[in-house]
């Protein structure tokens, strides 16, 4: 009886109603040319779906615990992000040849500098020093760096294909290696060395799980998991609905096409950003870093294999290699990130440095 009341109370909340409205907006706007007023309504539904996704992700995370909770949101967002990229590439033709590269690299810079820097800043403001586990965080950063170099840097230097592209065999190798590394990391994170990815106290001990609130029931958790997927579908679908407006705005403003990938990545990663900042405010910086680096890893480890499969029916070139400016930013991110995570403690300065790198990325995307 109590479970039924709990579910009935949950279904009456806006976190269930808003994602459904966002899906309705997606259905009504799909494949249509939207007026300015319609774009505003879809954008409003998009914002509501983002907030609802964060709520349902936190319900699921409370039930399954860390690091499984952050993994659920990272994988769910990335799977739907992949679907969005493939859909846009099918619709866009040759002009979207670099969309996968632009979106994946933007996701890496947003997560490893924007989200990570913001969470360190919030955590340091809250407790003077943001504390996390260097073993787990360092492992995650090393995996992200390896994946980024294998898939986004090497195509610039290979010679089998003209331009910054992989040959079919090279793309297949990159896809298998990416998926294998991501799967190996998940196994280490959730099974073999799970304690490396749990929140720690200022003294470096594992933080006790919250005991002030009972975990949600299994049925309520399943409902939240379903609504999380619905909300994420609405987020990505509504983002696609407003993307023509974004593209036309970028074109009319004379901005580079890569800005579209940056905007798409920002929209899709909003749920993870909000969830990560909330965790940092609760002095759970490790959970925030799990979300940030896990999202970057999943973005590469799942996107590249999906794109490799999609090339079977996609026409036109697939540009994956970064240019010199972006390779410098990636190298700076890896070096600074390694110096940040090695001590297991960070101050306001480290957060500010990562945010400065992110600001440089955004500025150079607009003014290359």
UniProtKB/TrEMBL annotation:
The chain crosses the membrane at residues 12-31, 37-56, 68-90, 105-125, 137-157, 169-188, 220-237, 257-277, 289-314, 320-341, 348-366. GO terms for cellular component: plasma membrane. InterPro entries: Alkaline_pH_Ca-Antiporter (IPR052946), NaCa_Exmemb (IPR004837). Its main location: membrane. It comes from the Bacteria. GO terms for molecular function: potassium:proton antiporter activity; sodium:proton antiporter activity. Keywords: Membrane, Transmembrane, Transmembrane helix. Pfam families: Na_Ca_ex (PF01699). Residues 37-190, 224-366 form the Sodium/calcium exchanger membrane region domain. It is a multi-pass membrane protein. It is found in: Membrane. PANTHER family: SODIUM-POTASSIUM/PROTON ANTIPORTER CHAA, SODIUM-POTASSIUM_PROTON ANTIPORTER CHAA. This is Ionic transporter y4hA. The lineage of its organism: Bacteria, Bacillati, Actinomycetota, Actinomycetes, Kitasatosporales.
